[in-house]
Amino acid sequence: MTYAISARVSILAELKIACVETQYRLYIYKHFLVRYNSKSRSRQIFIQQTTASGTRYERDLESLFLKGTNPPLYLIGNEKIRCKILNTG
Known about the structure:
Elements: E1 13-19, E2 22-28, E3 32-37, E4 42-49, E5 55-59, E6 62-66, E7 73-76, E8 79-86
Antiparallel strand pairs: 1-2, 1-8, 2-3, 3-4, 4-5, 5-6, 6-7, 7-8
């Protein structure tokens, strides 16, 4: 017999960002974030990694760096893409 388990986890922050031509919503939780692309209706989960400065989230060959007021940095393999935070209002 299989049982479904559900849990409520509080969102710490929500950001709307643009990386080149694509806009995402980032839902930041305690140890992970969810990147949502409303155009393709896709969601990816990034796991938080320990870093000396800022916060890094990873999945497969992708990384998102969030550091203070600096624009988010998105890496696909070795390709660096500077993102910008959009007005969420």
